[in-house]
Design a protein that fits this description.
mainly alpha; 2 helices; elongated
Length: 90
């Protein structure tokens, strides 16, 4: 009956693996958030398009293009605040 050979022991690694940071997950985007971001991007691109086209409505398109990132930050901040409030209730 042949004897089973024992596995060769592994040499200890020079450095232990770094602990993974707990509580830090990559951001996850749902369908609603993607729709919201795409809507803001569409408004910004529409404003830029109107600005490049020119005409009598140029000031409106300039304001629309300039305010789109600000509106996006306000909406995303409000969504983050509401998500935190929702997590606290659980």
């Amino acid at each position: 009956m042949p004897q089973k050979s024992s596995p060769t022991p592994r040499p200890p690694s020079p450095q232990p693996p770094a602990p993974s940071p707990r509580g830090r997950r990559p951001p996850q985007f749902g369908l609603k958030m993607m729709f919201l971001v795409m809507t803001v991007v569409a408004f910004a691109l529409g404003g830029a398009s109107g600005m490049l086209r020119g005409g009598d409505d140029l000031p409106f398109f300039v304001l629309l293009t300039a305010s789109a990132p600000l509106v996006a930050m306000i909406v995303l901040g409000a969504a983050q605040f509401l998500a935190k409030q929702r997590r606290r209730k659980r």
